[in-house]
């Protein structure tokens, strides 16, 4: 017999399977339409099942931010990008232990990281493709100005078995509404064109220019030269993504199902989803609070403890009762997913399936490595 949502213990992340399919199809179609290689970032779902859905729809490979994600995704994909600085011996060792069948690409933004990466690749007898990471405005990682990118590409080129494969950037600074992104897109186009010219002059034509995020997902084709995109959030979407118009509210596929556990204090209702379910992530769009109800977006979680979320009832006539169920759209879905072991897939009000968040966490600490830093003595 099918399980009704009412019977699930809360809080629990639930995914509307029809919405998920729509989101996956829409991005795949966009990439195909504009001849862009889709290399989705797995940090949103951390699941081999969703990754497989993305690959079946034409994704050329996957993007990962942690070694754990790489290890888990190597079970379903043989073309992985590590979009994180490959710094530290233990991280390098874990990278090189990936199955040899995996074509590994690594993003670098420092000359210091290159000899160690090359040595690790040499020891592991594996070729490693390298993207040079440039900062086009986010100011997180990436070299700037463009001349440093050419110098770094040259350094990569002289460190076999590393192979300079291209340029990568993350336009995380572009978070305006989709219709207001024109100036930002124009600035990116100019920066990418300059970079391309300089690299071409240096005899280091990039095979790939990798960019893209969910907020900019629908306009990245307006940046000539970009060949690859790496959106992650689009599979589930969230309150921020809807708030900037990069998806419709009806495209929010993941909600946290919660139960009203208290109405004792007038003007509010308390649900069993606090920071350990919803995460204390700011809304990066107009509005406030930490999450809002799927069917009443005007009702917002305005305060949280670890296991309590306070719904402000001042903008609604709705008066929930203890035991009522609500579905919450979180501000930032990626942080919500990684707090749970399992995701429940629903169709209508019924559970159809579930899947594990396999790549959450970091994996077991490897104490066997010779080069592992010595921590405090075992007790
Ligand atoms: C390097 C990199 N690429 C791609 C993405 C995916 O972007 P989004 O979460 O907007 O889909 C991220 C997100 O953090 C990122 O850090």
Task: Give an account of the 3D structure.
- It contains ten helices and 18 strands.
- The chain is an alpha/beta fold.
- The chain has two domains: 18-237, TIM Barrel; 249-356, Lyase, Ornithine Decarboxylase, Chain A, domain 1, CATH 2.40.37.20.
- The strands form two sheets. Strands 1, 2, 11, 12, 13, 14, 15, 16, 17 and 18 form a ten-stranded mixed β-sheet that branches. It has an eight-stranded parallel β-sheet with strand order 3-10-9-8-7-6-5-4.
- The radius of gyration is 22 Å and the shape is globular.
- Residues 373-379 have low confidence and may be disordered.
- The structure holds pyridoxal-5'-phosphate.
- Residues 41, 63, 83, 170, 213-215, 230-234 line the site of pyridoxal-5'-phosphate.
Task: Considering the chains and any ligands shown, give keywords for the structure.
single chain, 379 residues, alpha/beta, TIM Barrel, Lyase, Ornithine Decarboxylase, Chain A, domain 1, 2 domains, ten-stranded mixed sheet, eight-stranded parallel sheet, 10 helices, disordered C terminus, binds pyridoxal-5'-phosphate
Q: Number of domains in the coordinates?
A: 2
Characterize the largest beta sheet: strand count, sense, and whether it forms a barrel. 10 strands, mixed
Order of helices and strands: EEHEHEHEHEHEHEHEEHEEHEEEEHEE
Evaluate the radius of gyration. 22 Å
Kindly identify the CATH topology of the largest domain.
Answer: TIM Barrel
- Overall geometry comes to globular
Q: What proportion strand?
A: 15-25%
What are the distinct ligands in this entry?
A: pyridoxal-5'-phosphate
Measure the end-to-end span: 50 Å
Low-confidence stretches: 373-379
Determine the mean pLDDT: 95
The CATH architecture of the largest domain would be Alpha-Beta Barrel
Number of helices: 10
Class derived from helix and strand content? alpha/beta
Question: What is the number of E strands?
Answer: 18
- Let me know the CATH homologous superfamily of the largest domain: Alanine racemase
Proportion of helical residues: 25-40%
The first-level CATH class name of the largest domain: Alpha Beta
């Amino acid at each position: 017999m099918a399980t009704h949502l009412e019977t699930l213990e809360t809080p629990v992340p639930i995914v509307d399977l029809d919405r998920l399919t729509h989101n996956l199809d829409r991005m795949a179609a966009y990439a195909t339409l504009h001849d862009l290689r889709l290399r989705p970032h797995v940090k949103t779902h951390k699941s081999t099942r969703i990754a497989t859905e993305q690959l079946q729809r034409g994704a050329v490979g996957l993007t990962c931010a942690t070694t754990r994600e790489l290890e888990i995704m190597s079970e379903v994909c043989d073309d992985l990008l590590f979009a994180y600085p490959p710094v530290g011996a233990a991280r390098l060792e874990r990278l090189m232990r990936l199955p040899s069948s995996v074509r590994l690409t690594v993003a670098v933004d420092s000359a210091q990281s290159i000899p160690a990466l090359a040595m690790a690749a040499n020891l592991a007898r594996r070729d490693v493709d390298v993207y040079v990471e440039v900062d086009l405005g986010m100011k997180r990682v990436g070299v700037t100005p463009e001349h440093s990118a050419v110098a770094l590409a040259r350094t990569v080129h002289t460190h076999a078995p590393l192979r300079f494969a291209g340029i990568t950037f993350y336009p995380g600074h572009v978070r305006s509404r989709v219709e207001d992104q024109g100036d930002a897109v124009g600035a990116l186009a100019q920066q990418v064109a300059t970079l391309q010219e300089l690299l071409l002059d240096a005899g280091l034509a990039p095979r790939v220019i990798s960019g893209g995020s969910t907020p900019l997902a629908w306009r990245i084709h307006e940046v000539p030269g970009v060949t690859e995109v790496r959106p992650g959030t689009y599979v589930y979407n969230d309150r921020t993504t809807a708030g900037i118009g990069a998806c419709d509210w009806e495209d929010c596929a993941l909600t946290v199902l919660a139960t009203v556990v208290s109405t004792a204090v007038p003007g509010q209702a308390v649900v069993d989803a606090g920071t350990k379910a919803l995460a204390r992530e700011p809304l990066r769009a107009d509005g406030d609070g930490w999450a809002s109800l799927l069917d009443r977006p005007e009702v917002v979680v305005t305060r949280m403890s670890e296991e309590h979320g306070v719904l402000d009832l001042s903008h609604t006539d709705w008066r929930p009762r203890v035991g009522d169920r609500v579905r919450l759209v979180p501000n930032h879905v990626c942080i919500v997913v990684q707090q749970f072991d399992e995701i429940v897939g629903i169709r209508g009000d019924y559970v159809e399936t579930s899947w594990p968040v396999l790549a959450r966490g970091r994996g077991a600490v490897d104490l066997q490595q010779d080069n592992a830093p010595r921590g405090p003595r075992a007790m």
